[in-house]
Amino acid sequence: MIWHWFILMTLVFAITWLLGGLLIFKKDRTKSVKLFQWLLPLIGNVAILIFIALMWIELDRPPMRTMAETRLWYSFFVAWITWFVFLKTESKPMYILGYIMALVFLIVDIIHPEYQSKNLMPALQSPWFIPHVVVYMISYAILGAACVSAIIGRFSIRKNPNSLSDSIDLSMKLVYPGFALLTLGMLMGAIWAKIAWGNYWSWDPKETWACLTWLFYMLLIHLQYSHPKRHKLLSNLLVLSFLVLVITWMGIRYLPSAMSSVHVYGG
Amino acid sequence: MKYFKKDYFYSLRGSFALAIMLFIVSTVLQLIFGKINVTKLQFPISLYLFLELFFIILALWLIFRKHAVMRWFASQWATTTAISLFLLVVTIMALTPQSSHAPAIIRALGFNAMIFSWQYAVSVAFLLFVLGFVTLRKLKPFKGRQIAFFINHFGLWLALAAAVIGFADRKQAVMQVGVDELVWYADEGEGDYMELPFAIKLEKFIMKFHSPRFVLFNKEGEIYDTKNYNPITIAKGKNLSYGGYDIYVHDYLEEAVAMGDNIVPMSNMPGTMVAVKVSVNGSDSAAWIAPGSYMFQGHFLQLHPDTFLTLLDPEPAYFGSDILLYTQSGIASEKHTIAVNEPLKVEGWDVYQSSYDSAMGKDSQYSVFLIVKDPWLPIVYAGIFLLIAGAIWMMFAKIKNRS
Ligand code: HEM
């Protein structure tokens, strides 16, 4: 049973990311150091991919049903996006915080495996299911990276006054595709809801929160367009929007306004 | 007096302040007039409203586009006001349970039924006007990024305007159809029935299940927390490990009935249940376990003085109905299957498999369909597809350098 290997696998991911992380601080930047600093984390990233594939085969259904499963996907996308962002920008804090974020979600999964407590119910058996969840997870991962970049900018502002502006540049480069995917995920969800339940939008608590998240990022995009110099405001909004996103994703079940949501599934 | 200076409206603080002011004004309207009765906005009024909105925005823009007030309405500042006002309304909706059981003050403010409130109406109206003006302002030159801009913004305008104005035209009702019964009417709720331009005869209700799962429980009938255990697919001849026990599966029957202590295979009979014959930890004796049905009691196996093993009720994997369809406009009878995620289109209605007699499960003698008619759907979908196209563009578009 593949899940029994999860702790061991997490250790493998963690070690490859850690070793890669140590290399990025090495003083002598020889060719082989540069090669291994991206090759090592890549091994970890590929390992998650293989783990998810094996799980899919074993379960005989897409492993994206429970919270634990979506967190696994999230870690997967965060790991890959961190890898790409580092490749492009060589930002050390992005590398460290990105992989820490991926690890945190893996560790939450070790503590709360709640693994697969239910089978797929009929409404979830639809060709829309996989694209809908995958697109959302990629979007969440990208927007998470944008939030990390904004936080980094805030903390390194004393060392380098330009850092906030630079990190918001990076954040916004991430927010555009992240917001586009958020839009796609939401609209696919609407089309699917029409097919499964007869209405494309019913202001169910989960839908309301999804809309709220979308509006926060919409406000962000427009404010950065008209006020590109309001760095503090933009970085605050980047963090706040991501908080709203996380509540939408994981916090709904704890809200009094959402006890009756049809989108809160077991596990 | 500085708040009424022109400059104030061209500042970030002014944009936010205006959003809050509009919210307060619409809350006052809510307190005075109460919930908005949307049923008054049915066709043809909805159509007039939609066309008027479209042409008023167009006319106002064509006539006043040089005017200072109009320039503001088509600006970044108005955009900030519009988005943050709508965001505020949705935030309240996200935090307040949307139900009629709410304290009097919440009901008076309209927070418990936000989509019928004045705050919602005002915020959507403001948004549609601003979005309309912005889209028109950016129409020229119509090339490159401007096209992407148009697709996103007009897409949202179309989807939002059609969804909100068409809300009252959406009809839904419920059809409960018994086996072999022909039904041509639907229940609109509150004792109202309507005649339909089609009729449905239920031939057969079909239900399929996921494979059953083991469960451990104690004398009080409380289920042990087994959520950390892996799912296992039960199959004949398999050695399985569950909750610290080794379980060997001697036999697996999808449909069985109980005869005294024994279990025998039996299909095509009401009340059958799934059953599994197991032996535990290498024991020689094997026993049947079964979840029980509305006809038969469950069977379980005692493993310890306070631990019993049985099967959980299998979870539905599929349910649907084989039906015969008759329509006024000609179809005498036509076979169809309606299932969850597989609705049927007929005479402007969408027919959805909704539920069944849950006490009887797979032997349900009736099927419940939800029928929905939404004449504005094509316009909403046109908007949605524009937004999808815009999002795909946005994903690959080169991002302008901010500095
Ligand atoms: C409340 C509704 C909206 C209003 C009032 C609005 C208004 C505006 C305005 C005034 C601009 C600046 C254009 C300029 O002056 O050059 C803008 C830009 C932009 N808007 Fe919106 N918008 C709205 C909704 C949306 C939505 C739903 C999306 C995406 C799905 C979106 C995506 C964008 C993008 C990407 C830009 C930047 C354009 C560029 O980079 O060229 N907006 N919007």
Write structural notes for this entry.
The complex is a heterodimer of chains A (267) and B (403). Chain A has 267 residues and is mostly helical. Chain A has a domain at 120-260. Chain A has 8 helices and no strands. The two termini of chain A are 19 Å apart. The mean pLDDT of chain A is 87. With 403 residues, chain B is α+β, with helices and mostly antiparallel strands. Chain B has 3 domains: 12-170 and 378-402, no CATH class; 171-207 and 317-373, no CATH class; 211-314, no CATH class. Helix content of chain B is 34%, strand content 29%. In chain B, strands 5, 6, 7, 8 and 9 form a 5-stranded antiparallel β-sheet that branches. A 4-stranded antiparallel β-sheet of chain B has the order 1-16-15-14, with no helix packed on it. In chain B, a hairpin with a 6-residue loop joins strand 12 and strand 13. In chain B, helix 3 crosses helix 7 (118-137) and helix 5 packs antiparallel against helix 7 (118-137). Chain B starts with 5 loop residues before the first helix and ends in a 7-residue tail after the last helix. The model of chain B has no long low-confidence stretch (mean pLDDT 89). The chains are: A mainly alpha (267), B alpha+beta (403). Protoporphyrin IX containing FE (HEM) sits between chains B (76, 79, 82-83, 127, 130-131, 134, 138, 145, 149, 152-153, 156, 387, 390, 394) and A (183, 218, 221-222, 225). Protoporphyrin IX containing FE sits between chains B (76, 79, 82-83, 127, 130-131, 134, 138, 145, 149, 152-153, 156, 387, 390, 394) and A (183, 218, 221-222, 225).
